[in-house]
Amino acid sequence: MMFRKILYPTDFSDCAVKALEYVKKLKGAGTEEVVLVHVMDVRGIATMTTGVAWSGEATALSYEGEREVQEMMRANIEKKLEELKTEIEAVGLKVSVKAVDGIPFREILKIAEDEDVSLIALGSHGKSNIMEKLLGSVSEKVIRDSKRPVLVVKRDPI
Amino acid sequence: MMFRKILYPTDFSDCAVKALEYVKKLKGAGTEEVVLVHVMDVRGIATMTTGVAWSGEATALSYEGEREVQEMMRANIEKKLEELKTEIEAVGLKVSVKAVDGIPFREILKIAEDEDVSLIALGSHGKSNIMEKLLGSVSEKVIRDSKRPVLVVKRDPI
What letter would DSSP give residue A12? Predict the structure, then answer.
């Protein structure tokens, strides 16, 4: 059952979209189930809300603003995940959805173990170029520490 | 044609053997052709023959010995590649074989481009643990610089 259950983490970047095409195609090689995952990067939120706090607005307001922005982001993510679920189910694969907070590579590796997936399929580069340059890409760290096979789909040359 | 033509580099390590099982299984996802590659690491040969030269034997003899060892290694590699070719053909895939000298990740990336492969499938760790610790693993460098998707099969936990 080498390709039976695939963990597909997405940050909705172009590269992740491209990786999904490979996931769908793997049905022919025995894929039955996809674990569709989005990790909301807690470090990203911290940076963003610090940005708000430093913008000169009243702190109490920015705290409210922060909560509102987070709620909007969460609603948006859930909507996108539902759309992707429908898209993947359309090719005849079973889909479970997980939206979690954390440090992406850690959560991805944890879910890979918890769900006992056959393979992790992901894009080589996410949305946050700056974060990736500072911290290394999520895919690099997933590949390094994963016990399971990893399919890395590279981004298109710019 | 996401999985049509796969570049499968092997150093005959356990991890590479494991990766081959994934390659065979990808036939169901549209794989038709496998480019089976072994790169004889020129740095490895240098180390080995320097070892012979430093062993205290006559230099002229060690030069002859070096040639002889290299020829034996090459014959052995060709035999192994032929066996693998037969094994891959047995599942109904077309196979072309390449045995080249060079620095493995560079040759792998070059062949990936020259052969316009859809995917590179390889083991995460090769035979030479010491070389990998010094220089980084071949798979790391292939993933970093490849324009094409890479399937990395991790070695079994030790």
Answer: S
| Sequence-separated (6 or more) residues with CB below 8 Å from residue B13 | B123, B125, B126, B127, B155
Please name every residue paired with B153 in a beta bridge, in sequence order, or none if there are none: B123
| B142 pLDDT above the threshold of 80 | yes
Interface of chain A toward chain B, CB-CB under 8 angstroms:
2-3, 21-22, 25-30, 124, 139-140, 143, 146-154, 157
pLDDT in tens, A28-61: 999 999 999 999 988 766 555 555 444 555 455 5
Contacts of B16 in chain A (CB under 8 A): none
Torsion of CA B48, B49, B51, B57, to 10 degrees: 150
Rounded to 10 deg, the angle between the A138-145 and A104-114 helix axes is 40
The Cα-based distances of B72 to B9, B65, B79, B87, B134 in angstroms read 21, 10, 11, 23, 27
Q: If you average pLDDT over every residue of chain A, what do you get?
A: 89
Contact A22 B28 (CB under 8 A): no
Task: Compare B76 and A58 and report the one with higher pLDDT.
Answer: B76
Task: Kindly determine whether residue B28 and residue A29, on different chains, have CB atoms separated by under 8 Å.
Answer: yes
| Contacts with A124 from chain B: Cβ below 8 Å | 143
Q: What share of chain B is helix, strand, coil (3-state, %, to 5)?
A: 55, 20, 25
A148 neighbourhood in chain B, CB within 8 Å: 154
Distance CA A139, CA B152 (A): 12
How do residues B112-133 score in pLDDT, each as one tens digit? 999 999 999 999 998 877 777 7
Q: pLDDT > 70: what percent of chain B? A: 87
